[in-house]
Amino acid sequence: MSIVRSIPGRIRFEVDSGQEVLHVQERILADFGDDAVDLEFSYSERSGRALVRFVPDRMLTERVEEVVANALAIPLLPELSDCRSAALGDELACTLPAHAPGIYEPAELENPFWIVAKKVFNFYTTRLLMPMRLRPYWTAFNVAPLIFEGIRNLFQRKLNVAVLDGAAIGAALAMRDFSTAGTIHLLLDISETLEDWTREKSRKDLASLFAGDGKPVWVLRKGEEVQIPQENVAVGDLVVVRAGARISVDGVVADGTAMVNQSSMTGEPLSVKRGIGKEVFAGTVVEEGKIVILTEGVGDETRFAKIAQVISDSEAMKAEIHGQAIQLADKIVPFSFVLSGVIFVITRNWMQAAAVLMADYSCAIKLSTPLAVRSAMLESAYFGALIKGGKCIEQLSKVDAIVLDKTGTLTRAIPEVVDVCPVNGYSREFILRNAACMEEHFPHPVADAVVRKADEEGLIHDERHAEIEYILAHGISTTLGGKRMILGSRHFVHEDEGIDLDVADAQIKRCTDTGHSTLYMAVDNELAGVIALEDPVRDSAYRFIRRLENMGMRRIIMLTGDGEASARTVASELDIEEFYAQVLPNDKTELVDTLRAEGYTVAMVGDGINDSAALSHAHVGVSMKHGADIAQETCDVMLTSERLDSLIDSMSISGLVMKRIRRNYKFIVASNTLFIGLGIFGFITPAVLALLHNSGTVLTCAYSMRPMLPEQ
User: Fold this and answer.
1) 482 or 187: which carries more pLDDT confidence?
2) CA torsion, ordered 54, 59, 61, 66, to nearest 10 deg
3) Partners of 220 in the beta sheet?
4) Which of 268, 330, 261, 317 lies closest to 289 in space, CA to CA?
5) Greater model confidence, 407 or 270
6) Which residue, among 367, 393, 249, has the nearest Cα to 314 in the 3D structure?
7) Least confident stretch, 45-54, 175-184, 291-300, 546-555
8) What are phi and psi of 136, to 5 degrees?
9) Given strand 469-471, what is the order of strands in its sheet?
10) How many angstroms from the chain centroid is the CA of residue 170?
């Protein structure tokens, strides 16, 4: 409940019921007491909004506004049925609804450094306190799973890293070097723990980006509204959702009418009307009105949750370099055994031969690469870009051509009224005042822009017309002074209603030639005027384009389904040289395919259903957070905020992590070659060699997990 708009003599506010309007009225009358004030209240149950009118005095308006705000700050608790009438076991029907902000508390992961410290502390404390006679048996018990894993892979005719690890530990046990065997086990355990922690941290952070708000839900029980935890909602429940609330279930509207913002599902910025029999989805928001939903999908079964799960699961997409690392690691293993055998034949020294098994290239290569990839995914998510896997990171690091959809990507999809063109003798004030009077019933971006403009110019748009009729995807109509008044698109006014527009060509041209979107108003089958709206460019868009140029992007292309004038205006404002207007979905796909055929690595940025094909054809598809669900599923990178620079950050992170992986290769090869050489020539013992090798592996893994961007 809140005040929507306040101008001298008129205050509009949102309420949940007519009872609350009476509550506000009583508070105003009690506050004014004997001071006579002429108040007129009206309330629309469909929209959930109330209006109070009085003498247009500024001081009086401020006083009434203060009283209304105080009254709305104290919510009315609904009366509940007698506990004796509740069904057995339905204790929730006998409790007052809680007004807690939410019940979702994401679990925290333990700090990885504490995990490693505890493992090291436990290892050395156990060795210190355990009697000498028991140490060999304790060590053998701990390392046995690794040996058995190596034997199992060997029987399956696999000569991989697991076999090499088992052989190294087995060689240490055979030489009765239990200290070395225990140290190898500890270091392998630490490496695996760090990898598991990073994977779990990445999974939790990715999933939390799409977690619900966890707030309690209002449901109908025995005809009364009660509040229950979100996880207790079941299929078949009747869920009540009012203006401003987020829908938490999938279902069908069983009662009421509301304007629902479905941008999280469809990418469309305008709200849609949802009445009885219409489907609604979790993750969408009721902007105006009140609906009762028959629940058909809850929890993990909602479309919103399934999208989140797809994105969370997509972490399994391996980078090509990741797969190459795993293959290389396994291919090196046979050479380690061959080299060990050659050393034994030459030296007849088991210690020197075992040294080759204690240090190898494969372990560090196999562990550090996925850690670096997952860390990059996690850091990119932190900066607002959700990358769906290592393969996408690798492609993103190579992008040299980017295709950008205009609406909702480079522009904010929040229109503003920039011009009003009256025709046929009507005045500018008449058009704007009555358009605002009609549009204030429908709080979508275009309507808000018209009402906001009227308020800025001090136009009082009294509600003296008949009931407003909303015609889905076309416009609105009403009756004023016995005359039918309509407001909507050119298609609605001219083609559907048959209103002649030729008489106002010059005025219409003045609005449309600037590339603006238009609303047409007609009174009694005669055009009254045209309202021009502009979808402003995002504040960060110009900097975003310049940063792309500075990164060496070879092609930057803007696409839009709007007209040539609108496209040229935005392209000029952002200094984009290459752009295409009136582009259809198949045209976008063809352009992406053409760029790929010319040898470019292409990124496509869009947010609508019409962009989904192009997103899937590009090397890297990028969707905005408010994009359509199909765009989110087909994209490779999803921006989780309105911040365009998040894409730049993700591209920088991708390039840096690929450089880091290549540096890791060089370090692993150089250091392990040195360690093996020292071991072969007897300068260090196998125990020291194992310690150096595994310590280097842990350091490489720790380096792989360091943040990327501070290196810039």
Assistant:
1) 482
2) -130
3) 225
4) 261
5) 407
6) 393
7) 45-54
8) -60, -45
9) 416-422, 526-534, 517-523, 483-488, 475-480, 469-471
10) 49
Q: What is the pLDDT of residues 673-705, one digit of tens each?
A: 888 788 777 787 766 777 787 778 778 877 877
Nearest partner of 541 among 516, 558, 522, judged by Cα: 558
| CA 460 to chain CA mean position, Å | 40
The torsion of the CA quartet 202, 208, 209, 211, rounded to 10 degrees, works out to 150
**For residue 402, which of 566, 576, 565, 632 has the smallest C-alpha distance?**
576
Q: Report whether pLDDT(421) > 80.
A: yes
Token readout for 67 is 């009283």
Take residue 36 and report the two structure tokens written for it. Answer: 């006579």
Of the candidates 464, 450, 590, the one whose C-alpha atom is nearest the C-alpha of residue 520 is 450
Cα–Cα separations (whole angstroms), residue 668 to 338, 376, 498, 662, 705? 20, 20, 76, 10, 16
Determine whether 562 is an active site residue. Answer: no
CA–CA distances in Å: residue 38 to residues 32, 56, 104: 11, 11, 47
Q: Which residues pair with 255 in a beta bridge?
A: 292
Angle between helices 362-382 and 320-347 (to 10 degrees): 160
Please tell me what DSSP assigns to residue 49: E
- Going through 243-344 in order, the beta strands assigned E by DSSP cover 250-261, 272-274, 279-280, 285-297
What is the predicted pLDDT for the residue at 91? 34
Single-letter code of the amino acid located at 634: T
Reported confidence tier of residue 671, pLDDT bands at 50, 70, 90: confident
Residue length, the chain?
A: 712
CA distance 635 to 679: 50
Mean of the per-residue pLDDT values of the chain: 76
DSSP assigned state of 315: G
Q: Which of 452 and 698 is assigned the larger pLDDT? A: 452
pLDDT at 404: 92
pTM above 0.70? no
318 three-state secondary structure = coil
**pLDDT score of 97:** 29
405, 562, 611, 636: the catalytic one is: 405
Q: Are 420 and 532 in contact (CB under 8 A)?
A: yes
Output the DSSP codes for 320-345.
HHHHHHHHHHHHHHHHHHHHHHHHHH
pLDDT of residue 106: 42
What are 471's strand-pairing partners?
475
Phi and psi based region of residue 268 (left: phi greater than 0; alpha: psi -120 to 50; beta: remaining): beta
The sheet with strand 3-7 has its strands ordered as 3-7, 10-14, 49-53, 40-44
pLDDT at 90: 34
Q: Beta partners for 537?
A: 411
Residue 418: how many CA atoms within 13 Å on its side-chain side? 16
Judge contact between 43 and 15, C-beta under 8 A: yes
Task: Please give the angle made by the CA atoms of 448, 434 and 464, to the nearest 5 degrees.
Answer: 110
CB atoms within 10 A of CB 509: 12
Of 60, 63, 48, nearest to 4 (Cα)?
Answer: 48
Least confident of 133-142, 472-481, 526-535: 472-481
CA–CA separation, 704 and 441 (whole Å):
55
